[in-house]
Amino acid sequence: xxxxxxxxxxxxxxxxxxxxxxxxxxxxxxxxxxxxxxxxxxxxxxxxxxxxxxxxxxxxxxxxxxxxxxxxxxxxxxxxxxxxxxxxxxxxxxxxxxxxxxxxxxxxxxxxxxxxxxxxxxxxxxxxxxxxxxxxxxxxxxxxxxxxxxxxxxxxxxxxxxxxxxxxxxxxxxxxxxxxxxxxxxxxxxxxxxxxxxxxxxxxxxxxxxxxxxxxxxxxxxxxxxxxxxxxxxxxxxxxxxxxxxxxxxxxxxxxxxxxxxxxxxxxxxxxxxxxxxxxxxxxxxxxxxxxxxxxxxxxxxxxxxxxxxxxxxxxxxxxxxxxxxxxxxxxxxxxxxxxxxxxxxxxxxxxxxxxxxxxxxxxxxxxxxxxxxxxxxxxxxxxxxxxxxxxxxxxxxxxxxxxxxxxxxxxxxxxxxxxxxxxxxxxxxxxxxxxxxxxxxxxxxxxxxxxxxxxxxxxxxxxxxxxxxxxxxxxxxxxxxxxxxxxxxxxxxxxxxxxxxxxxxxxxxxxxxxxxxxxxxxxxxxxxxxxxxxxxxxxxxxxxxxxxxxxxxxxxxxxxxxxxxxxxxxxxxxxxxxxxxxxxxxxxxxx
Amino acid sequence: xxxxxxxxxxxxxxxxxxxxxxxxxxxxxxxxxxxxxxxxxxxxxxxxxxxxxxxxxxxxxxxxxxxxxxxxxxxxxxxxxxxxxxxxxxxxxxxxxxxxxxxxxxxxxxxxxxxxxxxxxxxxxxxxxxxxxxxxxxxxxxxxxxxxxxxxxxxxxxxxxxxxxxxxxxxxxxxxxxxxxxxxxxxxxxxxxxxxxxxxxxxxxxxxxxxxxxxxxxxxxxxxxxxxxxxxxxxxxxxxxxxxxxxxxxxxxxxxxxxxxxxxxxxxxxxxxxxxxxxxxxxxxxxxxxxxxxxxxxxxxxxxxxxxxxxxxxxxxxxxxxxxxxxxxxxxxxxxxxxxxxxxxxxxxxxxxxxxxxxxxxxxxxxxxxxxxxxxxxxxxxxxxxxxxxxxxxxxxxxxxxxxxxxxxxxxxxxxxxxxxxxxxxxxxxxxxxxxxxxxxxxxxxxxxxxxxxxxxxxxxxxxxxxxxxxxxxxxxxxxxxxxxxxxxxxxxxxxxxxxxxxxxxxxxxxxxxxxxxxxxxxxxxxxxxxxxxxxxxxxxxxxxxxxxxxxxxxxxxxxxxxxxxxxxxxxxxxxxxxxxxxxxxxxxxxx
Lengths: 592, 592
Hints:
The structure is a homodimer.
Chain A lengths: L7 H11 L15 H19 L3 H7 L2 E3 L2 E3 L4 H10 L18 H14 L1 H20 L2 H12 L3 E6 L15 E4 L5 E11 L8 E9 L10 E7 L1 E3 L5 E4 L2 E6 L10 E14 L5 H6 L2 H14 L1 H14 L23 H34 L2 H32 L2 H4 L5 H11 L6 H12 L6 H17 L3 H28 L4 H5 L2 H30 L4 H18 L2 H10 L14
Parallel strand pairs in A: 3-6
Antiparallel strand pairs in A: 1-2, 4-5, 5-11, 6-7, 7-11, 8-9, 10-11
């Protein structure tokens, strides 16, 4: 069974050495000193490593079962969920008046990385509840908040999001689920929803489904969509649970991965629901949660690859196979460990240079969400809106690729389920699909975010890169190893933006045919910037004195690897973009 | 359930329009005219589409079971195997005196693509038998050939290869299975082998295991290894089956994919075996089959992605979701088909431009094996030895990536096992691992093949590219769309070779740290060359007149896409290679 070591030191490094959160001008960040964050991260790490991680393989092997209409989660999940509940982890960043601890979202995100790494399928029950709470917080009436939120914050109840239907995924304008208004102000919800993660289970007393449906009078397409609260058990006026609502599980999907999470077909047969937010404004209500939900999936993308990397590295250090080309490294043994082989190093360096960069980018993104929510910083809001599809699409593509790389280090043993390396790759695969498939992220990025506010957020990003380079240009090692490659990569990004500006208006396909490569080009520049910042922090630590020079030297070496071996991908993506839409669209549809 | 359409037209195109096999100066190729190959490909296509493909999902869902020491294959496999046997497909390229049809290997390969695409796990039972036959043909005594080969050619008996042990995969020098010589000339084989594909099953009367083991007196490491024939049932002098041999199945592995093939732990408890080939020369006996076996896995790499692509394309044409940015393409319907979206096109074009290029490369490779075996062409032998790790490593990496791309087109439905798209990705994943993990292919390429014969095969490859460019330079469309990008990519490959020559001798890590990228760089140049040849053939068809201009136009458009959007990856791989080993090897082993 794979092991998992919470990367507490690395999380601290990003929070305190790189982002320097306690110095950021965001309300609540002043308290985020190492003395406050250390015990929280350590406690979360313990829960992740000791309780959640040992259940990861169990969840994969046992899966969820539908018994008499109720989903039975894998053995041990219920107890672990109680530990998650008792630790108050779901409320870490939620309002105190609802039972939360009102800490910044960036800390919730750092904690979340460990929960996802330990057991991604399990953590989704909590993560989806957190998302549903955000929706009710943003759009619910005071009565709704009072009724639903305290038990949801406590994880006595959980939540789900119901968007997809058999014939409609991305294109929600096609949805058919109907909401008929009733005399008492409620609605009768009828229709079928599919791919509902955590749609049912046996770990909480109630489940609050948030359901997109069409109420009369809203017009065609997405305009007519509203969002409804549909509890599994109706809630009495005093907060106790009443009758079972007319919502049921049609089946559990058999999936490539995340077997521990019940992906349900949900049937609404005239179920009682209540409008959440404004009538016919359901899409807007959904979109307010989008940045956070998509950042969360971007986090899953790299977080699931963290234990994959850890176990690949451990195997490479232990497995004896072959001899180093430079002479035996383990002359007393029958062979050298795999890690002497340069190609194994290449693979491990590809993995860790991505993972550590993605961690920094994700936590920076979470801090931008805090800045937007806590200080109403419009610049931060614009920037995170721009970066969200990049974080989601780039990090999940790379995360899957890196999980597969980690599996490869194990050779044939990586293909056998018993060793657990396959599960990381299979679990990672979903992150590229849900919460908006990555092609849709690329479309959102190029079709909407790039031109938003007249391009202001994109210009702001270039400004950040430029300023970082200008500020640190005097540091020779930083300049040659980091700033120069970052400058070149940023120039490629700029060239892609220019190409879109010059061609995208008159030929939309010119932009859309390059959208996926743009998302990756942008992702690389983001990670290049993050590595620049980390290198700066580590050079500073080494220059001013640190009790852990090996740690900082490893960061610089890993960063140099990224800049030399990953960042040059920007030129390839630019070449693909500027080759234009002609070759992409050349064939008639029937030729496929 | 996914569908599968045998690409007969495309196979014919490569054989006759591109390679022009019947004009190649290889014995037996003169008969390979379209009139001969057409009925064979069509008959094989029927078996693939009608019998094997419908069992692909069954094999995945049901898997193999171990019952009272015998492996039970999935329902339907036994009947399909009988059809494979009755069709004589295993003997297509085997000697007539053994019951085969003595056709060229290139035709066996073309047929094999369809069997693999239809049901990769199933086809391995035949494919491994074919490999074992090759070994006995090359190294067996006349008596051994007479005893074992006719029933194996007929598929009355099947074969396996037993190399791996729990503690040794690539590094066979570590193996512990022992062979003790007996007075009657036989050996007693004792040890445990793992990951034995088709190790046991219920579809044939006997199984001939070829087993690597150490006999006394051979010295340490790989030098002491010999190859043995160990039948499941001992064979009497008259060819009838005798006693059960002391070989048994320890367990069946639970794997990520290819569930229909029984991957067994095989226990040899003093089993009776006979030496195959020379004592202590077992490694050499293994290596003579390597090119063919690895080409076969390279074929699997792209062949499994063929039905994945077909089903992605079909879904993209049918699934209505969203509207084209350029205006509704299906105004009467509720939405446009996915295929109107440029990013879906990008994905499908990435897939098909790889698949069609890989098909041409694989069949060209098979023709080189024929040239080497049938005419003793040393140049062909050198070239295919060089190209084999490229075909295996590059095509399986890309095949997996493309199967995952095809899965992505299906969105959430691609993650659900019911639709079958996940299986293609899970099955494809093994091809990167077995028959020498891709990192080992890269090592073989850079560490052995590149410098073989003083670099003659590598120079021969550059000569082929150069000559092709020079010969066709007068064709303007070919020049700008194909020859110019091929020239640039070939220059990158040349620069990588030069880098290795200048640095690899004094710093082996300089070559080894770039080996994986070199394998991919080389793979892209190979596919660039293949697309150049295909474009030439299709331009010629269009210029001289063809009854299917749409087919040839699609080929040219697909090729142009590859040259514009895939081939530029050579520059990235070169940049990674020339960044040197420093960043790859910078960290101490304990930092991982």
